[in-house]
């Protein structure tokens, strides 16, 4: 079969809607992307990336006419910005910029702007529109910053009338602007953006705090979102500019005002007291270089903008422009409860554009199989007095999928492995089991069978159970992988080559004859890793097993010979999780290097690299149709990636701690996520919305699983409990109208206890894995803890 192309995911920069936010630039790519081994970008890709930064387009042929020299263009750009600052009564900023550029006041008064410079001034907002001016100022800064990258690179802005910023070699004089130490205008602008009296930072912040606390209730909740990102950026700016005493005083005065779910981040922040500390802290570097996203109504934003302009509070306005992305929506402001449900991640909320891409969440059409009737089925029919049916019986769930799901991806959207005879036989068995499946619901809860690992002094770190519930595997901190049979049938290895040569290859029971009865045992131990094993996953056909470890490798084991077949090396740091695709062949891994990788079993290099998380990728899960992968991260976000092109098509925020468990509903429409905050959040994948919040657990949720028909959601936690939730009730009557989708005005049920169907406690065993058998018996697993 044809495999996906062996190349990392193409990184596509999305231009934000100018009406949607105050910042015209997409967030800078996190260092994680750079850390991933990727092929060199093509010229086309480089052009696209360069053209999307700051909305600047690649150079175009100049129109006929006299061409302005680079120095003259620099001067025109600078003069236009200075005149804009003067018209906006930003005298202090104008003085600082002129002083840095060593430009006399008379030069500004007497200077005549060229048509390009006049166009720039008009675009900056010559009529006093400071919002447009700040936005374009940031755009000019970005375009000028690109020019620094090459000695003679020229980047033309896509906005009409904006002159191109061109790099000028140091020491050159251009049109009255002396450029001795500053390489070009961008250096001046960046210096201007970073100016600020360190002794006034506390006054600026307390002034804004007083204004927000005294504003109307409807605006206060939305504007309060500014406190945390402003606090962090102002503190980092003080530390970066080596104002250590002012930074310490600022932190001690205001850190207690931040929301409780930011306490872990503030603990890290408090340890950064010198500029040198920031260089080694990747999380805070990400926070400084990527934009913190806030979703605010237009009325609240206008209120904030008016206040900052009246108070001439340039320092805070600069931080808002440089480091925040304010996603503005029209309509009523959100309530405190609605905001609290969505915030808490390392980079704020997701932009609305991030969740607008179409997602094919439907299931693929299943191949048709004839399921012969068993003897007991025939006897049962005779007892009821009905004649025997010669027509093969079809599984009810299987028959539903015979009709093409309108939300399903095209059958050949990604290459999938062809079904072998053994796979077809297994699907027939699955359908037979499904025919006898218990229909679960509030009145019919599942029985639970708990597998407790006793004396697990090796430290149980991962568990998985085969789809047919015949084997269970444990990954341990002593670097071993242990496989048990949980049926009377023992685990056997294939005979040696010498013994195999004596077997008749044409016999009907050749598969049984090649197994060595001498090796039969209930337990097999696999050695190979050189560090704790953090993730395990059985292949759908039960012939293979994946394991990932602190040693940075993913290993593929044969369950016929119980030996290691391949070691996949791509991650440079510990790999936290791995999982097989529902169709086999493909698998995904995620680790400490903050990226997830898509692999195929017959390729030693990853097919896709999914970069975008700002912290460790802690858990991974394939969508039931295998076209998408969900990843949970320590940056407190969940992302959904398209396997076909590597794009991130959904970003879900709302958890207040690292995410450790993911589960798709059987119909592929919903996703459940669990984290260290003890909450289970439910998401509508099609609309990109949170639709439920399940509260009850008091510790990290390590296991989530839907029943085979999707009626029950089971959650397992470190609080030693398994809880069962009514999934049907949780997903009915969803508010997914256009307004809710556009603004994020989600209304979660007040009391999630109405959805709780049962709580089952263990004596002293944290729950690390859950699994529903084909007949809907719930299996749970964990290691007994004597503490």
UniProtKB/TrEMBL annotation:
Compositionally biased spans, kind Acidic residues: 371-382
* Localization, UniProt: Nucleus
Q: Where is the composition biased (Basic and acidic residues)?
A: 394-405
Annotated WD repeat ranges: 453-494, 526-561, 568-599, 610-651, 652-685, 694-726
> Which residues belong to any copy of the TFIID subunit TAF5 NTD2 domain?
196-324
**What interactions and quaternary structure are annotated?**
Homodimer. Component of the TFIID basal transcription factor complex, composed of TATA-box-binding protein TBP, and a number of TBP-associated factors (TAFs), including TAF1, TAF2, TAF3, TAF4, TAF5, TAF6, TAF7, TAF8, TAF9, TAF10, TAF11, TAF12 and TAF13. The TFIID complex structure can be divided into 3 modules TFIID-A, TFIID-B, and TFIID-C. TAF5 forms the TFIID-A module together with TAF3 and TBP, and in TFIID-B with TAF8. Component of the TFTC-HAT complex, at least composed of TAF5L, TAF6L, TADA3L, SUPT3H/SPT3, TAF2, TAF4, TAF5, GCN5L2/GCN5, TAF10 and TRRAP.
Record's Gene3D superfamilies?
Answer: TFIID subunit TAF5, NTD2 domain (1.25.40.500), YVTN repeat-like/Quinoprotein amine dehydrogenase (2.130.10.10)
Which SMART domains does UniProt cross-reference here? Answer: WD40
Identification of the protein by name: Transcription initiation factor TFIID subunit 5
InterPro entries under this entry? LisH, TFIID_NTD2, TFIID_NTD2_sf, WD40/YVTN_repeat-like_dom_sf, WD40_PAC1, WD40_repeat_CS, WD40_repeat_dom_sf, WD40_rpt
Q: What does this protein do?
A: The TFIID basal transcription factor complex plays a major role in the initiation of RNA polymerase II (Pol II)-dependent transcription. TFIID recognizes and binds promoters with or without a TATA box via its subunit TBP, a TATA-box-binding protein, and promotes assembly of the pre-initiation complex (PIC). The TFIID complex consists of TBP and TBP-associated factors (TAFs), including TAF1, TAF2, TAF3, TAF4, TAF5, TAF6, TAF7, TAF8, TAF9, TAF10, TAF11, TAF12 and TAF13. The TFIID complex structure can be divided into 3 modules TFIID-A, TFIID-B, and TFIID-C.
| Comp. bias (Low complexity) | 1-23, 31-57
CDD domains, A to Z: TAF5_NTD2 (cd08044), WD40 (cd00200)
